[in-house]
Design a protein that fits this description.
single chain, 4-stranded antiparallel sheet, alpha/beta, globular, 2 domains, 7 helices, 10 strands, 6-stranded mixed sheet, Rossmann fold
């Protein structure tokens, strides 16, 4: 599904973020990217999304080199990738309107939009909050809305950048359980996180990054404290 081969990335000509890394994420896999701030976790997500290009090396999505993508291919790629962030990037509209927004732009019919939104709000547990605005939602509920919007098109890949960073432990666990459900419905999930407790509880694949290098790649892995890097 996703393959990075000898990928390097430097910012400002001096700061080496990734150093010839090799990484393969299989279809329908769930993987955590862990490591200290500046290790390169978010950079990997941006490269997969084709928001940025590597200085050297190649990135393949479904065996196609993303460097060769034309604009139409990039747009199609992003339609098949859902993204959620730490900082609740939702519109100042109701949950329903946030989820329906992209579908309306794509020209979906009203009934199809309703069916898709109803399915997603039930999946993320916001069926009782569907007509609420962001200020009426808790932090966990806002993140659920972000998650719902990211999966409204049933993407093949879901990228999550610190999705529990601003949440309490109970809300964090709810978000991870939803991500697990999404993964089980044939979506590849990649989560960049500092949340040691969540990683240790989930026991999924853990890819640890430090100093621009992958230092550990472990199935059923644990976080490990930064001091052990």
């Amino acid at each position: 599904m996703i393959r990075l081969r000898n990928v390097s990335k430097t910012y400002n000509k001096h700061f080496l973020v990734l150093n010839r890394i090799n990484l393969h994420i299989s279809k329908d896999e769930f993987a955590f990217l862990v490591g200290p701030t500046g290790a390169g976790k978010t950079t990997i997500l941006k490269l997969i999304l084709r928001e940025d290009l590597p200085d050297s090396g190649t990135i393949y999505i479904d065996k196609v080199n993303t460097r060769d993508f034309r604009e139409a291919q990039i747009a199609k790629l992003r339609k098949n990738i859902g993204v959620i962030f730490q900082d609740f990037k939702i519109l100042n509209r109701t949950v329903y309107e946030n989820l329906a927004f992209v579908l309306k732009i794509q020209g979906e019919k009203k009934q199809a939009i309703k069916e898709k939104v109803d399915y997603v709000v039930n999946l993320v547990g916001l069926e009782k909050k569907i007509h609420c605005y962001p200020y009426q939602l808790s932090g966990g509920e806002q993140q659920k809305a972000c998650l719902g919007r990211a999966i409204i098109n049933k993407p093949l890949i879901l990228l999550a950048d610190e999705p529990t960073g601003n949440l309490d432990p109970d809300s964090s666990w709810e978000i991870m359980q939803i991500l697990n459900k999404i993964n089980m419905s044939n979506t590849t999930v990649i989560v960049a996180t500092h949340d040691k407790t969540i990683v240790d509880l989930m026991r999924k694949r853990v890819v640890a990054i430090h100093g621009g290098n992958i230092i550990r790649d472990q199935q059923l892995g644990r976080y490990h404290e930064p001091e052990s890097y």
